[in-house]
Amino acid sequence: MELEKPDLYRLSEDGRTLVLRGGRCASCKELSFPLTRYGCPKCGAEPDQVSEEMMDGRAQLLTFLTIHTKLIPGMTPPVVVGEAEIAPGMIEEIMLDGTEERYSDGMMLQAVPVEITKGEATMIACRFAPAEG
Amino acid sequence: MVTLKEARPVYVIGVGMHKYQFVSDTLYIDMGLTAVRAALKDAGIAFPEVESAYIGCTGIGMAAGRIMFNHLGSTGLACTQVENASASGSSAFQMAVHEVALGRRDVSIAVGVDKYGDQVRAVSKEAVNRLSDTAAIPLVKYAIMAEYLSKEKGLTGEDLALVASKNHTNASKNPFAQFQKPRSVEQVLAANTVAGTTTSLMCCPRGEGAAAAIVCSEEAIRRLGITAEPIRVTASALQSEKPQQGREIPSVTLAQEVTEMVYQEAGITAADLDCVELHDAFAIEEILYTETFGLAPKGEGQHFLRAGGSAIGGQCCVNSSGGLIGQGHPLGPTGIGQIHEIVNQLRGRNGERQQPDAKIGMAHMIGLGSIAIAHILQKEV
């Protein structure tokens, strides 16, 4: 099945989790996410200086809430979103799987594949869920 | 760097507005001309005296200002359209101020005019996905911050509602405001929940409108025999955000940086401010910015609010116009609408929204991206 945002993540080897596609800059040595075509967002180095570095998809949940209103086309509220640290010092807004009762601030999360329907197509999206172990 | 204090003095001599309103069939030219004519009348000058114009707009299309000015007489004035998202009007004002300060022109007008356009954002053409579908929506970012602060600092939904209630009530006394009804804390809390504890009445509306401000040099004031009370612009700064450090939203960190720059440029501190118009697209922002501006200690913005520090008649009235939440946020005009409010405050002609003995005011806007911009205006005594 097709990934919704293949530029951001890939299925892990066992297919149960997702790994995130980061970039490591050879010039400044910094990790960035996501990997883009434009080069290093930390130091401005050319794209050929940045190589793909897979991130394990684990994250620490910082805060979360439920969106109750359709804010963008294709959104079906309620939707749970939050901010999580996906690598040391790297805070990203993420989408959480299920309802907010499953979550608490500070808990460890794992990026997991979740089937969604977009128009006629079914695809695999990235959602974060409580990490096992 | 040359500051506005060191450069040729620049004064606002006239302001005007067209009411902010919900999307309608009103032509943008009708709105823009209303604001421009009101500003000309306020300044007591004729349009041919204006040498240059900066037009802030986001949703009308190319050459909006040039087409509009055709209907005032083609005087040959220099005409530049400015797009800087929500800060388009503020940026237009800054360019007019700098041009006069540099001595390149004696009289310049900043006009903000907008219709609700297609709202296309460059971020949608970046070809970079984000993990969250709402990552580029400021409302979600601020709602998450409100959630965090409710756990960390004791901020409550009632505090957010109090901001909105204050600003809606100020707007109800402002004939140019989009919302005209006073709202109680209970009414704000009972409105539709958008995200977390944020309700629809805690968010600015979409709309349209126009605002204009004419700036000039001392020489022009003498030459044109201007009798309207001039208000001096003593500082102007704009910066864009840096990567997020810790939990603070970059636009909030940025707001602090910009206000520190304008305080230094104007030679004032937060304690000198009598009135502030700030970017309250969402109620949480007003609480955060009163802290970053130094009006309240860090983490105590809600206490400043609850104690009436930001009310008209308080330590420093915040958003006496109703702010973006109450007066409205039509994008292009918003920053110039703030100048309109502050000029009226400093001239002591703001009616029942008058801050007693107001002498120094600040206008602050955030533009998507983010950029922050601030201006200090002072009554000369």
TrEMBL record, chain B:
Coiled coil: none annotated. Residues 23-181 form the Thiolase N-terminal domain. It comes from the Bacteria. It holds the Pfam family Thiolase_C_1. Residues 244-377 form the Thiolase C-terminal domain. Transmembrane segments: none annotated. Signal peptide: none annotated. SUPFAM superfamilies: Thiolase-like (SSF53901). GO terms for molecular function: acetyl-CoA C-acyltransferase activity. This is Thiolase. It comes from Pseudooceanicola atlanticus.
